[in-house]
Design a protein that fits this description.
Layout lengths: L19 H12 L22 H6 L2 H7 L5 E2 L3 H10 L21 H6 L16 H27 L4 H15 L4 E5 L6 H8 L21 H32 L4 H12 L9 E5 L10 E6 L11 E2 L2 E2 H19 L8 H28 L3 H11 L2 H17 L3 H32 L3 E2 L2 H18 L1 H9 L1 E9 L8 E9 L2 H36 L8 E2 L16 H24 L2 H6 L4 H11 L3 H12 L3 H29 L10 H17 L4 E2 L1 H20 L7
Parallel strand pairs: 1-10
Antiparallel strand pairs: 2-3, 2-4, 5-6, 7-11, 8-9
Helix pairs in contact: 1-3, 4-12, 6-7, 6-9, 9-10, 11-12, 11-19, 12-13, 12-19, 14-15, 14-19, 14-23, 15-21, 15-22, 15-23, 15-24, 15-25, 16-18, 16-23, 16-24, 17-18, 18-23, 21-25, 22-23, 24-25
Length: 720
């Protein structure tokens, strides 16, 4: 974004906004810089450009003016971010909201700067320190930390030698009871010139900021100091360090209390290891006054609700907090194989929850590699690892079902496939419309790009369910149990557990007609996907109307500092995929008791838990795009996943069954067929006009929940 020039005012008119060309040229004149130093990377749109302003063309060349009037819809800090944003609009590429490079500090909002601010900064008067977050700190940590410091102080005074540390603990007792509005200072040593000058000053001198005279501390001899340090490190420090470690971990996991985690970590790593005569605890009263020493800690708020935006090396804090869950899941799953410590239900739940952070790491690794590579490498990585989360679970479930001779696993996989399709077509865009509609009254999106995805969805759904429709027409209806209702041999019969048998006459119908149709469809669907890629990325890429700029004015240019290099992202991608395979194996290993003992239909388990939990990172990305009034990407997230389910994942599963025979056949139940087709038709109807609001999103979400109710009350499939 270029700096804005002062806006001219007309006679009797309000402020008038100048053209982009005029503002850009005014900015160039102000900085008196050369145009070659702008460092702008613009993706030119296909089509006529607007005419430039005469005033601009009078001073600069026509080429510069055309670049000035280019309408850039997205702005990036550097070329890598511009490449990532451009990939978000490419069909078949994973949409990623978070940055893959470190954002310049001056480009961040004040809210984000507050999250990363140091706890050693003294600010002006910030109002009362009695807030809800501070009271929560007092109830959760403050009272028992203060009590612990009283006990440690008593122990130190009893040892006599550790009396200086006892005095320090006594001072910290009041600090940790209510640390807000107080400061911990690191004083100069007694032998330093600053300390000598301070000793010559008046002992009764007071500070306007800290209030009251600065107390003089007795400086112990070298031998006394060594003995006190030994007693402190043996009796006092270990217990306090353990308490602060527990406080740090607990507050970090609560996210909103991360300032408390930072405070506890600094106390354990710095304050408690300093000589006691160099630590001074004071209360802040006024501002603008010199300090007696270096500020170590100064905290005003214990909680901040915006810490959900906090990131560590580009990784969101929630993904960081869920990473230990993966380790716990793997240890419990493979060490406690006989369920002595936990039950199968607990292990299944842990394995399913572990998939969420792994999906996040896989997504960020794919986005990082694609943003730092050319188009071919990005396309290969997205096609190879884009659906690895779902395919890992499906393949492990089919392998387990084949080993046990249990057809229920194949039915659960079909339910999960249908649930992913229905959820990404109805729930994901509907939820994004509702949440985005709360902030924006009406949201618009590119109807042409949505039309391409809708056409591919119609093609994919028709191809996937073609073998099912074929079996309905030519298959033989077989029922497990029939009863004569009218007690007349020629009367009406009531039958249960009916299905179309394709294996009559030694499977002639299936092996001669249905199976060749399945293989044909499995070849045509990926071919259609490739045609869609060529259409949207090469021949008709202008329908996405992408304008991405990484332009910075002279003096504001920033080089790209990527969070993950390509090799690091590749390593994380491979490790996450390996852990994903292990978690999927544990989930399928411990799902048997849930399928057999649960009163809930296996259909419902497949279309909800197994289908939507791996897609939670994608749902979060879609919501973030919708809040920024970028509903096109929110819709594309759901459509791309649904298209990949039908045109990539299902053909891969069919190909897998050729080399490893399983119970999976591309014949779905009537419920799956009707739910999928109705969802695609409804989605296409909603997206026709290129605009939407929260009401249309509510309709999609309500229809999705109605279908979930149908699956909930549906009887279990015949294979279970």
């Amino acid at each position: 974004d270029v700096p804005k020039a002062p806006e001219p005012r007309g006679d009797g008119a309000g402020p008038r906004r100048g053209s982009l060309c005029e503002r850009h040229c005014a900015a160039i004149n102000n900085v008196q810089g050369d145009l070659g130093d702008l460092g702008c990377h613009l993706h030119w749109p296909r089509g006529p450009t607007a005419t430039s302003s005469p005033s601009c063309c009078h001073q600069h060349s026509e080429e510069v003016c055309e670049s000035c009037v280019l309408k850039t819809t997205l702005t990036a800090e550097n070329a890598v971010e511009a490449n990532k944003l451009s990939n978000n609009y490419k069909f078949g590429f994973k949409k990623w909201k978070s940055h893959v490079t470190a954002r310049p500090w001056e480009d961040r909002s004040e809210i984000v700067k507050e999250l990363y601010s140091d706890l050693s900064i003294i600010r002006g008067s910030g109002g009362s320190t009695v807030t809800c977050g501070n009271v929560v700190y007092l109830l959760l940590f403050g009272w028992w930390l203060s009590l612990l410091y009283v006990l440690v102080a008593a122990v130190m005074f009893v040892t006599v030698v550790g009396a200086p540390y006892g005095r320090l603990c006594w001072d910290l007792t009041g600090y940790f009871l209510w640390p807000f509005g107080k400061v911990i200072l690191k004083m100069e040593g007694p032998d330093s010139p600053q300390a000598a000058g301070a000793c010559e000053a008046d002992a009764g001198e007071s500070s306007a900021l800290l209030g009251g005279p600065v107390p003089r501390r007795w400086a112990p001899t070298t031998h006394w100091r060594r003995a006190a340090s030994v007693v402190w490190l043996c009796l006092g420090y270990p217990g306090l360090a353990l308490a602060h470690g527990l406080t740090c971990v607990t507050s970090w996991l609560l996210v909103v209390l991360i300032p408390v985690a930072k405070l506890s970590a600094r106390v354990a790593a710095c304050v408690l290891l300093l000589p006691p005569e160099r630590v001074l605890v004071r209360r802040l009263r006024m501002t603008e006054a010199p300090l007696e020493g270096e500020v170590i800690l100064c905290c005003y708020r214990a909680a901040n609700p915006y810490y959900y935006k906090y990131a560590v090396d580009g990784i969101n804090v929630f993904a960081v907090n869920l990473l230990p869950l993966v380790l716990v899941t793997l240890v419990l799953g493979y060490v406690d194989s006989h369920n002595h410590l936990t039950s199968s239900s607990v292990k299944f739940t842990l394995a399913l929850l572990s998939i969420m952070p792994l999906s996040y790491y896989i997504g960020m690794a794919i986005a990082s590699i694609s943003a730092q590579s050319n188009f071919a490498v990005g396309a290969v990585v997205n096609a190879t690892f884009g659906s690895i989360t779902e395919l890992t679970f499906y393949i492990t479930a089919l392998i387990k079902g084949s080993r046990e001779g249990n057809g229920c696993y194949a039915e659960v996989v079909k339910s999960a496939l249908t649930g992913t399709l229905v959820g990404c077509v109805l729930f994901v865009p509907g939820l994004c419309m509702v949440i985005g509609g709360i902030r924006h009254q009406e949201q618009r999106f590119n109807s042409r790009s949505a039309g391409v995805s809708s056409a591919l969805l119609f093609l994919s759904v028709g191809g996937v369910f073609a073998p099912t429709l074929f079996s309905k027409v030519y298959g033989k209806l077989v029922c497990g149990e029939c009863h004569n209702v009218t007690r007349n041999p020629l009367g009406h019969y009531l039958c249960h557990n009916c299905h179309f048998d394709l294996m009559e006459n030694n499977g002639t119908l299936y092996y001669s007609h249905v199976q060749p149709l399945v293989y044909t469809v499995s070849l045509l669907l990926p071919a259609g996907y490739l045609i869609g890629l060529v259409f949207t990325l090469k021949t008709h890429s202008h329908i996405y109307d992408i304008h991405v700029s990484d332009c910075h004015m002279p003096g504001h240019h920033h080089s790209a500092v990527v969070h993950w290099s390509r090799w690091r992202a590749l390593l994380i991608l491979l490790l996450s995929t390996l852990c994903m395979s292990a978690c999927a194996d544990l989930a399928t290993e411990h799902i048997s008791p849930i399928l057999t003992n649960s009163t809930i239909s296996q259909y419902f388990i497949g279309v909800t838990v197994l289908a939507m939990v791996p897609e939670l990172p994608e749902i979060v990305n879609g919501i973030q795009f919708a809040l920024q009034n970028n509903l096109s990407l929110s819709i594309e997230i759901g459509n791309c996943i649904a298209v990949q389910v039908c045109m990539l994942q299902i053909p891969i599963l069919v190909l897998f069954t050729i080399f490893y025979p399983t119970n999976f056949t591309l014949v779905f139940s009537d419920l799956h067929v009707y739910a999928s087709m109705f969802s695609v038709v409804l989605m296409n109807y909603i997206f026709m006009d290129g605009k939407c609001d929260y009401f249309q999103g509510t309709v999609l979400v309500m229809v999705y929940f109605i279908l979930l109710a149908v699956y909930f009350f549906a009887p279990s499939p015949s294979g279970c």
